Amino acid sequence: MKKRTLIYLAVFGIVFSSCESLIEVDPQNNLSASAVFTDIDAAQSVLNSAYNRLIRGGDGQLYGRDLKLMGDALADNIVTDADLAGQRWNTVNRNDQGAHYNIWAQSYNVINDVNEVLDKTPGLPVTPSQEPTRNSILAQAYTIRALTYFNLARVYGYEPNKIPTTGAGAGFDRSAVLRLTPTGSFADAQPMSRSSIIETYTQIESDLTEAISLFANASTPSNPVRYFTLGTAYALRGTLYLYWERYQQAIDDFDAAFANSSATLTDDIVAAFTSEMNPEAFTQLWMDWSTQSLGSNNSLYSYTHAPLWNGISTFGGQTISPELYNSFEEGDSRLGLIYVDDRHPQYYWSNKYNGAAGLYADHLIIVRYSDVLLMKAEALAALGQYSAAAELIVQLRMARNASVDVVPTDVRIVDYIKDERNRELHFEGVRFFDLKRWGNGVTKSAAVIGGVGFLAHDHHRMLAGIPNSQILLNPDLPQNPGY
Amino acid sequence: MWKGNYSIAIPSGATALIFRSIGYAEQEVPIGSGDVINVRLSEDASVLTEVIVTGYGQELKKQSLTGSVSVLSGGEIENLPTQSFDRAMQGRLGGVQVTSNGGQPGGGLNVNIRGAVSVNGSAQPLYIIDGVQMNPGGLSTQTTQNLFSFINQEDIESIQVLKDAATASIYGAQAANGVVLVTTKKGKAGRTVIKVDIQQGFQENPNPYDLATGPEYYEIYRQAYYNQYLVVSGNGENGTRAWNNRLYGSPNNPDPASIPNINWYDAVFRKGNMGQYNISFSGGSEKTSFFIGGGYNKTEGTNIGSDFTRGNLRANLEHRASDKFSIETRINLHNTISRGPAHGNGFYTNTPFTGALLVPTLNPIYDEEGGWNNDLINGYGYNIVQVLHEEDRETNTYGTISTIALNYDIIPGLRVRAYGGVDFTDARNFNYRPSSIPAYAGTGGTGAENYYRTLNWNTSLTANYNTVFGADHNFSAMAGVEYRDYTQRVLSASAQGFPNTMLRLISQASTNTGYGSTFTGFKLASVIGNVNYDYQGKYLLSGNVRYDGSSRFGADNKFGLFYGLSGGWRLSEENFLSDVRFVNELKLRASYGVTGDQSGIGNFAAMTLFSSPGAGAAYNGQPTLRPDQIGIADLTWEEVESINLGLDFGLFRNRLFGSFDIYRNHRNQMLLSQQIPQDSGYGSITVNAGRARMEGIDLELGGVPVDAGGFKWTSSFNIALIDNKLLELNEDAALDRDGNPQINDGRYTVGKKLNQVYTIPWAGVNPADGRAMYYDINGNITYSPISADDRRAYGSYDPDFFGGWTNTFSYKGFSLDVLFQYQYGNMAWTDMNYPLELSGAYGYNQLKSQLYDAWSQPGDITGVPRPFYNGAEPGSVAITTFSSRWLQDASYIRLKQLTFGYSLPSSVLSGTGIQSVRLFAQGMNLWTITKYTGEDPENTATNNSMNVYPHPRTFTFGANITF
Asked: Has UniProt tagged this entry with the keyword 4Fe-4S (chain B) (predicted)?
């Protein structure tokens, strides 16, 4: 017996002598960072993460919900019914302090994903036949970074030529924090301060220019509309130039965008929005409805359809403002995307997010043909080329079965484009940014009870506040004025 | 009951015999003229004579103890109508605070020993059940199910709490928050004893809120709309019309008598029945002893759809194979089914408490045809009564907590023990939301099912040596190795689109919406040692050491050393006290030790990792790799350094006894979530950075104030005073206004108590216009305070002191047990009042006060602002702005338990074969004194108590029969 005990003790002792390996556990859910970038497929997988975050980041704080719709509530397109909406965006619609876009954290998650791709992909071993794929991945990554910085720039900062000279934000020229390399360790995560508006715009321009040159020697993925492409990159750079008021460059890029995209101007706008793929889309973020929809809690469908419309549970209370509805003339085919719910006859509802991709799911358009068309018209008008601008508006309105004799061909076209732009693009996330870059403030719908009524361009709530925790961490960030 | 005979020669002059036995009260019997003196010793209520199990099979009489240990014997918690033993510890153990965060029977609890606070760690003790190391928690994703509900309370012999680091340090990196040792019963040689326990009863939740009726609801919102429209558009009548339009589709005022008033609360809450039934057989021979038992517990929650069912089987066996070799095994098999509504705290309209309180009372529950009414005004798409009836939420867990130990005595005094223990569970979580509930009609019904398989085992090999040399020197030592391995795998699937609400299996649905397969785990390998020495039982010394390696620690910091030293001096054994007759026991103790807490480190937190989150994170059907976390290679445990000074005493023949402990713990290298700039792509990482001090006094007092004429009153009182202070934080933590580092919005601020409450000061209602007012940082009244700048400190979520007071009165066969528990000085939010006191802002039902106490005309002095729809008066912050309005002192005293028992006299039972019968009736949570107006001051475990319904008032009656 004694001997047996001793043997047992000895065995135990041997087992325990190799302690280090005894207490190793492989985290099977995860992969060590050093084991990730092995080949070009890995780069594509990390890029996929960025795409997915654009759809699902946060509760839809990027394109899944907020970048598509919140701006319309901040601006003049939406009247929120607080009770139907379960209080969602009630305060946003009133422009209460702090009720604004909150894309900071989610945007930088996207940027860190693509920074990983941009940092590691050039070092991956590729065969000559894989080079076009590598270029495609890098070009997409640059485009995503540019778009994400552009969103940060327009949510948290002013446009280069629209910095107010009065009010809390007078002369305030800070924009995004520019992080261009991935965060691989705690040491990489040191606080940085925000760059200036010009620095940020210049970086976005540089990323898009880089993307455009890489796309020239890149492979095309199957179903290219589901990815960022050369046409999208041109359209985005044109948009940047339009915000920057560099109109001729904008026009050139918009032309290049049309030339490098399969998107077309549809003459059946209702069918375009109720089909899974919208023929006007330059890029459409593709979601698998069964596993990726944001559901009744956060989807665009839910926000824009009253509870139990068609028996579907929602938190829908974001309705079309009477002013917007009244801006349409009878017969305009875009009215086909607006409906009335008999249970709430006082409201008009938008059906742009109708579950075309499945329950609570719509593939999310990043750049739409008519948007580019309208921006080009706007740039032409800004350069005084009124009749050229008017031609584009006529082209659009004909496609929408709207009258064309009302389209002015003189300086009045400038304002007409702005109105037409809203008739065409309402509930697609551009309205607030448009009003902001035009610099004339936001006149809220008269149907909004309470709130600011009119949000002047120099009111600090034209900019979103940066999350307070970030300011506590780095007061020199700095916070936006008034927060 | 032991019986024995004795004979003794009595010296001349002797006047009395003194009878002593461990575990029994000393009894002095005068010597009369007769030859025969029979005595029957009664069990000693004094804790001083108890045997303490200090871990790894070591036993020690309490009088030899040099550390700080609280003991609860199984007898004290027998027959309690609680589903898990941790709940039964509240009020009965000094320095042990138990709080809960839900009303689900058998649900999760928080246990804090000596005010343990950790910013990110669990601050929960290590539990050791018959040697199996377990961490508190649960396996339910559908409701809440406490791991410790798997143990039948009636099987417990004793619960011991190791409170100071010197004692707990034998458990090293897991011991910093104290250790709870649970030992189950074993058989004794002798005749087989059969025990049958039956208990039946019910529990209920009185509605703590005075809710508005249907007509009152109408009127609050009519005024709220009126006031809003008056301010915004200058026409209040338009507001009334808008409200009528919303309700009735017509602007005309309704006939108030026609507005229904429906009691949703009573439709959701009920009198829940409960019953527990146990049978056990114990006994044995010289060689073999056994305790075999089975139990069944069925407890209905106080809301419909909620219940707890447990069946368990136990076999504890010991066999002495030879005079050197013995085997012990303890086997527990259990099945626990918890069914109930959504767990967790917070604002969910599909959960019973918020659901029942917030739905406007003018909504009928049923429609005119008797079906569910789902055309609810401001009901947010859920008829809560329907949801509770039709949705399935269940966790069904099978498992075992079983051990085996082999003991071999190599030479007298040297014993080797090989031990293995396992805690295995397989938990099925199931959720089904039928399409008959409108909220789930769009998806065609949804189903989700997952299995949690957890294997948690530990094994040890130890050697014990005991010897006495030179007659006076007692020496014992223990050394060994231990290994613990915890793994958990989850397999899950979800789907939607069921063809029929009777079909509820995932494979029957049309669309897969998710599937998962995940893994987590950790490992610990350790070397342990212990030495005890005493001289004449007078001077006591003890030391522990443990060297732990953990898979959770960072690569540069894999191993840690923990240790404890303690000493005691039994003054009562000294000659100079031998004349002091009233002192029976007096011992001074001192200890110092270092323990660790690895609970704040995630299993893989120290590593830099990418994840592949599966279908939900894929893009266009292609897989994803995603940066997940950045790790720190030197990440390590939190360390608690503890000094404890104690005094144990027993006076007046141990009729007054107790212990007094004063301690100071320093919690070093606290694990903190270091905020890093979000623009880095990460929100935070875990670092070792903070330092805090916790100090306090534990006092346990027991006594027998009256023992005369057959009437006996025993009483035991405990109080724990705690104080703490945060000494350091990471350098990069944000600074508060005074330049002190702080995190979590001031909850942890250097130089202040831990768990600070920071909020905006509420200044009441402006008598001139009925608007809510606040104070800014300069003490000026404002309508629009700034949340970050105007907050002030309002004390702490931690109490200043807490404890309990147990009394037992017995006379003849009757007994009465009374337990009070109390807590003083902690702040708590009245979270549930918050949506109910919003002055008609958001459509929810409101308290009556929002109508009758609201400001209505200039000059009104009231605390309730005027009704105002849609959140905020122009120029004011939203009425939902959190402020001291919903913050209260949550001190309380509660009559926790009242049990009246009667034991049938043996004369009645003679000849029946029944040894004893005890009948009892008891009530729990009968009466509470508190100024806190939230639902339950005992429910302040988290700082969000919304959706947490009160501890039910429970009444049971039962019988214990012994054959």
From this structure: no
Rounded to an integer, what is the distance from CA B195 to the centroid of its chain?
A: 29
Contact present, B152 and B310 (Cβ < 8 Å): yes
The predicted structure's pLDDT at residue B389: 92
CATH architecture of B69-190+269-341+391-755+797-811: Beta Barrel (2.40)
Burial class (CB in 10 A: 0-12, 13-18, 19+), B31: exposed
pLDDT value at A449 more than 60: yes
Kindly calculate the radius of gyration of chain A based on its CA atoms and give it in whole angstroms.
25
DSSP string covering B169-198, please? GGGGGG-TT-EEEEEE----SEEEEEEEEE
pLDDT tens-digit profile of A81-103? 988 898 899 999 999 888 999 99
Does any CB of chain A come closer than 8 Å to the CB of residue B517? no
Residue extents of the structural domains in chain B: 1-43, 69-190+269-341+391-755+797-811
- Tell me how far apart the alpha carbons of residues A258 and A243 are, in angstroms, rounded to a whole number: 19
Residue B877 tokens read as: 């912050």
Distance of alpha carbon A61 from alpha carbon A108, whole angstroms: 12
Kindly list the distances between the CA atom of residue B111 and the CA atoms of A233, B180, B184, B237, in Å, as whole numbers in the listed order.
Answer: 57, 10, 20, 55
Question: What is the rounded CA–CA span in Å between residue B302 and residue B954?
Answer: 10
Cβ-based contacts of A1 with chain B (< 8 Å): 324-325, 408
Q: Rounded to a whole number, what is the distance in Å from the CA of B128 to chain A's nearest CA? A: 21
Contact A61, A293 (CB under 8 A): no
Are the CB atoms for B174 and B597 separated by under 8 Å? yes
Around Cβ B108, how many Cβ atoms within 10 Å? Answer: 23
Mutate to test the interface with A, among B363, B411, B680, B760 (most CBs of A within 10 A): B680
* SS3 per residue for A78-112: EEECCCCCCCCCHHHHCCCCCCCCCCHHHHHHHHH
Sort B257 into a burial class: Cβ within 10 Å, 0-12 / 13-18 / 19+: exposed
Residue-range domain boundaries for chain A: 41-473
* CATH number corresponding to A41-473: 1.25.40.390
**In this structure, are residues B16 and B28 in contact, taking their beta carbons and an 8 Å threshold?**
yes
Q: Do A105 and B325 touch (CB under 8 A)?
A: no
Q: Which helix (H) or strand (E) holds A19?
A: helix A19-22
A156 vs A170: CA distance, rounded Å: 15
The mean-pLDDT minimum among A294-303, B607-616, B893-902, B906-915 falls in: B906-915
Residue contact A5–B525, C-beta within 8 A: no
Residue of B522, B603, B625 to mutate when probing chain A, most A C-beta within 10 A: B625
**CB neighbour list of residue A82: distance below 8 Å, 6 or more residues apart:** A90, A317, B842, B843, B870, B871
Query: Of all residues in chain B, what percent carry a pLDDT higher than 70?
Result: 95
pLDDT for the residue numbered B203: 93
The pLDDT tens digits for B261-316 are: 999 999 999 999 999 999 999 999 989 999 999 999 999 999 888 899 999 999 99
- DSSP 8-state secondary structure symbol assigned to residue A405: T
Stated length of chain B: 963
pLDDT of residue B314: 96
Q: Does A25 touch chain B (CB under 8 A)?
A: yes
Distances (CA, A) of A216 to A44, A230, A234, A263: 19, 8, 12, 19
- Residue A379, H or E segment: helix A369-382
